[in-house]
Design brief:
Helix content: over 70%
Radius of gyration: 22 Å
InterPro entries: CodB (IPR030191)
Shape: globular
Structural class: mainly alpha
Protein name: Cytosine permease
Keywords: Membrane, Transmembrane, Transmembrane helix
Largest sheet: none
Strand content: under 5%
CATH architecture: Orthogonal Bundle
CATH superfamily: Hydantoin permease
Length: 470
């Protein structure tokens, strides 16, 4: 799975530290194998242990999950291939430098702050995931699906220790982070496979009909959760990485690709991690739901806990604990590192080490509050909804600037630090569709694409009216 590890490390290392303000030269471009390994490893990680079970809490049926994920992940791959990779190989710039050319430095600073904080919250949820595994042999009381605050001193101490260790490793730089992930990723993927196989045996599933009889048409969502239909699964899985593909964050990675066809390699992450691993994790939760403990929660009208540590331990023993710790670790480490880079753009006088420690501290504090992990489906939807429209600005300028009669890279050309066309396009699209989601109780992922399209269109219209010849 992890082919060309040395080349992969080079991509990530360069993406974090070289060619930040210039196109990537031909001598530094990489083949498709590098991206295959990177995406396969990055998307079979800690989030998968949470997302799979959370689908079951939303009452998803077998058909909706299997076919919905199949289609939704395909749409994500197509977005990477024909938008992100296509633009990346033509411009070969990082997301941040490209946004700076269009938006101006001041507006990019706002973007970096939002990006960094959201990264910290995601990393915090993965610290929570690892804590549920460490807490198994210590007899820790597991956080409940509806918990917001920490539920005990043992949980707090474990989170603080894990957060401190992860932050220190992330602060040592991406070379250390990437090397650790390369060693851990195969173990994690094999553990997902093992968990899925063991879970099927515990559920007495030997044919697809057996599987269907157990999962069937799904059921009512657990208390505090919304019912997921086929379209919820399709749209959510498409936009689970909205910030990365239609949000253009992965321009920073694909600028190193020799050809745009490298974008197809994202399928390794989508169908190893976001398909196989999500379903395997959901099966673990299905096993737990048959236990007397889970039935007692359901009889009391409360949702059984969705704690990855005990679920994996019940299936494959201490190997499961190790897998969950590593999975949370390999997600939190690079996420904290990337958050540190975003903060460094705002605090340039601080060293990479100290901004990463700052990011790790914020992530650790977030990890103390289990709501970020227990409500991960909603958080990921919000994350993509906030950041994806900035990518629309890049996409619409790239494909439609000439037809719309506007100047590309206007902030750079005009020497301005704040492009009002970008700000108002984002603010109007975000405000309008967030209001629709809140007022009419519309699933947030359903309005991500309309918000993205509106932001791109408004950017063209406002730019045409406000741009001055330069």
């Amino acid at each position: 799975m992890l082919q060309n590890i040395t080349e992969e490390t080079t991509i990530e290392d360069i993406a974090g530290g070289e060619f930040e303000r210039e196109p990537v030269p031909a001598s530094n471009r990489k083949g498709w194998g590098s991206f295959l390994g990177m995406y396969a490893g990055e998307h079979a990680a800690g989030t998968e242990f949470m997302i799979g079970p959370l689908f079951l809490t939303a009452g998803v049926s077998a058909f909706d999950l299997i076919i919905g994920l199949l289609i939704g992940n395909l749409l994500a791959v197509l977005s990477w291939r024909f938008l992100t990779a296509e633009i990346a190989v033509k411009r070969r710039l990082t997301l941040y430098f490209q946004l700076e050319k269009i938006c101006g430095k001041k507006l990019v600073t706002v973007y970096n702050l939002a990006n960094g904080v959201l990264f910290c919250f995601l990393a915090g949820s993965m610290i929570t995931v690892s804590a549920t595994a460490v807490g198994v042999p210590l007899g820790m009381e597991m956080p409940q699906l509806t918990d917001t605050m920490p539920n005990g001193i043992t949980y707090v101490i474990i989170v603080l220790i894990i957060g401190a260790v992860i932050s220190l490793i992330a602060a040592r730089g991406y070379d250390t982070v990437s090397r650790a992930a390369n060693w851990m990723s195969p173990v994690i993927v094999l553990s997902f496979v093992a968990c899925g196989i063991v879970a099927l045996q515990l559920l007495d599933v030997y044919t697809f009909q057996d599987f269907w009889n157990i999962w069937g048409d799904g059921g009512e969502p657990f208390p505090g959760q919304i019912k997921y239909t086929f379209w919820h699964v399709v749209i959510w899985s498409w936009f689970a990485n909205a910030a990365m593909h239609i949000g253009m964050s992965d321009l920073s990675v694909f600028r190193f690709a020799r050809k745009a066809s490298a974008g197809w390699m994202t399928a390794a992450g989508m169908y190893v991690g976001h398909y196989m691993a999500w379903i395997a994790a959901a099966l673990l939760y299905a096993v737990y739901l048959r236990s007397p403990e889970a039935q007692a929660f359901l009889d009391a009208g409360t949702a059984p806990p969705v704690a990855p540590g005990p679920l994996a331990y019940n299936a494959i023993g201490f190997m499961g604990i190790i897998a969950v710790v590593l999975a949370g670790w390999t997600t939190a480490n690079p996420t904290i590192y990337r958050a540190g880079l975003a903060f460094q753009a705002i605090l340039p006088r601080l060293s990479t080490f100290w901004v990463t420690i700052l990011a790790g501290t914020v992530a650790t504090i977030a990890g103390l509050f289990p709501a970020f992990a227990m409500q991960l489906l909603g958080f990921v939807a919000f994350y993509g909804f906030v950041l994806a429209p900035f990518g629309a600005v890049i996409v619409f300028e790239h494909f439609f600037a000439r037809r719309a009669g506007i100047q590309a890279n206007y902030a750079e050309r005009a020497g301005i630090g704040f492009n009002p066309a970008v700000f108002w396009a984002w603010a109007i699209s975000f405000g309008l569709f967030y209001l629709i989601s809140w007022q009419f109780d519309v699933f947030l992922s359903f309005v991500t694409l309309p918000a993205w399209l509106l932001c791109g269109l408004l950017f063209l219209v406002i730019s045409r009216r406000t741009q001055q010849p330069v």
